[in-house]
Every structure is written in structure tokens, then in C-alpha cells.
Amino acid sequence: MHEQAQARVSEWLARPANSPLCVDQEMTGVTYDILSATMFSGALEGGAQDTERELTILLNSIGRIHPFDVMNAPDWLPRIGHGRGYRARRYFEAEMEKLLNKRQAEEARGVPLPDDLLSALLKASDPETGQDLTRQDLTRQEITSNLFTFIAAGHETTARALTWTLYLLSQSPEWEERCIAEAVSASDDPGQWLSEMPAIRAAFEEAMRLFPPAPQLSRMASDFDTICGVNIAPGTYIYIAPWVLHRHRQLWEHPDAFLPERFMPGNRDRIDRFAYLPLAAGRAFALARFLHCRKP
Ligand code: HEM
């Protein structure tokens, strides 16, 4: 990650002085390079812009609720208007297939597998039988689906969080100065950076409060439940909107203001675990149950 970020900064420094830079595009580019380097050892083909375009199309169409969904129509019934989204899905399936084929061909030639996500998936075996999972067709499809999930989940989220952080800092000279001071005085050991840069971390967290990259989460009830006096039937969709939660006037002071001090050490611990959900709630996403126990 450090190498990729450094390479990007070097490119910026080589540009003519005062030439404009599209921060959004740059963050899309650098997060793509980092994903490719860390998860696939740089083997991801295509460009950041292609991935971004296809991902946006996919999320805008397939990620949108269709009237058929509300009617609980079966999945095989095509959702009219989602055609471009299906094509984007096929684009990713083809890219992931290429990636997998290339790595498997290398493996067959005896090239040592690099230590990355793709290798981990390729080497996966059934913990009970020890059987190599990749020799079964269905599991091959699961591998490409998992690869795609990581790209979809890890690319746009990170790029948007960085873009909003930089934008908000550009509007706040005091915090911009504090963050620059931290970056300039940081040690040479990236392993220490998280603890050495509390202001940068706070600015990033505050940016994700105001502009959560995943502004809405959804779940489907598996059983009967009651949330805040509302009866929930199995199959009901539940939407949790971090965007609304993060700006809720009963939970946050000056909710619309960019105030990173909320996330500085000492203040951070006072934030209710379930008032701030940019990364959802981890493994224990018993949020529906949690809400059930809270005052409305
Ligand atoms: C600022 C950056 C990020 C944010 C705000 C973010 C946010 C989230 C949220 C809210 C969820 C839960 C979604 C849900 O439960 O409905 C999630 C799931 C996930 N995230 Fe992230 N994420 C970020 C970065 C990443 C990165 C860098 C990766 C991987 C390289 C990643 C991989 C995943 C995966 C695999 C899931 C599970 C998806 C699934 O269950 O289908 N995320 N993320």
C-alpha cells in the first residue's frame, strides 16, 4: 500500500506546478492499484477507469430495488431496465475468469504462487475432507464471485472515503494544517503510522461520518420479530441508513459540521458503537436485535 501511494505521489510531484488534478479520479486510480497489488500481486488487467465505470453501472442497476423484487418475483425473471447492469456483471465475470486462468496456468508451469488473496482462494480445501475445492466447477464460480465481491466492496468505498476526506480537509485550514504536520513528522516505519497520526485518522473517520461510502445497509428478516413496536414478518427487507444515523440530531452535536475532534483519542470512546456504522457492525451484526432493545 505504501509503495503504491508513494508511486502516485511521485507522479503528482512530476507534474507541472499548479496544474489541476482531479482528486476523485486519482483516488479511484490509487485504490485500484492498491487492490491489484495487495490482492492479486498486480495481476489485475484493465484500468481503474473501466472498473469504476462498469462498477457504477452495476451498482446503479442491479443494486436498485426493482418492482419485481417487491413482488417477490423469482430471480430468473429478468428485471426490465437492468440489461446494462447484467452486461457489467458479465464484464466482471470475464475479467475474474481471465485472472483465474492466468494464475492457474502459471501454477501448472511450476511458477510459485505469490502470497495473496487469489492464491489463498486457489489453495482452499474443504476443512472436513481436505479435498481441493478448485477442481469442482461450482467452486470455481465461487472463487470468481469472491474475487469480484472483494473488488466491488473494496474499491469504490475506499476511493470515496479518501476523496471526501481530502475535500473536507481542503475546506478546513486548521485540520488541513494539523494533518500535514502529522504526515511530515511521521517516522519511516509505516507500521507506526496509525498511532502516529491521530488527526489524520480522526479526519478520515469524520469524513466517513458525513459521507458514509455505504450509506445504506439492508437485511431480510429470517423470522418474526418486533422492532420498536413494529411487527416484522419473515422475508421483510430492513434498511439501516448510516447516512441518516450519522447526522441524527439526537446523537450528534452540530451533526452537519466537519469536526474531526469527535474522533480524537479521549473523545472517540464516547461515541456509541451503534451511532457510527461506516463499516456496519462486523461479525456480530445483530443490529436488528440491538435496535429491538433500544429506546425508539
Ligand atoms: C473505507 C473503506 C470501506 C468501507 C466504508 C467499507 C464498508 C463496508 C460495509 C458497510 C460492509 C457491510 C455491508 C453489509 O453488511 O451490508 C462491508 C462489507 C465488506 N467489505 Fe468493506 N468497506 C471498506 C473497505 C473494504 C476493503 C478495502 C475491502 C477488501 C479489500 C472490503 C471488503 C469487504 C467485504 C469482502 C465485505 C463483505 C461483503 C459481503 O458480505 O458480501 N471492504 N464493507
Description:
It is a single chain. The protein has two domains: 2-154, no CATH class; 157-293, no CATH class. Helix 3 (48-61) crosses helix 5, helix 5 (83-108) packs across helix 7 (137-154) and helix 9 (173-185) crosses helix 11 (198-210). The longest helix is centred in the first third of the chain and has 26 residues, at 83-108. The protein is built from 13 helices and five strands. The strands form two sheets. Strands 1-4 form a two-stranded antiparallel sheet. It has a two-stranded antiparallel ribbon with strand order 2-3. It is mainly alpha-helical. The site of protoporphyrin IX containing FE has 14 residues, from helix 7, helix 8 and strand 5. Residues 149-150, 153-154, 157-158, 161, 208, 213-214, 217, 278-280 line the site of protoporphyrin IX containing FE (HEM).
Describe the protein's topology.
Blueprint: H1 2-13, H2 23-40, H3 48-61, H4 67-70, H5 83-108, H6 117-122, H7 137-154, H8 156-170, H9 173-185, H10 193-196, H11 198-210, E1 217-220, E2 225-227, E3 230-232, E4 237-240, H12 242-245, E5 278-281, H13 287-293
Antiparallel strand pairs: 1-4, 2-3
Helix pairs in contact: 2-3, 2-8, 3-5, 5-7, 8-11, 9-11
Bound molecules: protoporphyrin IX containing FE (HEM).
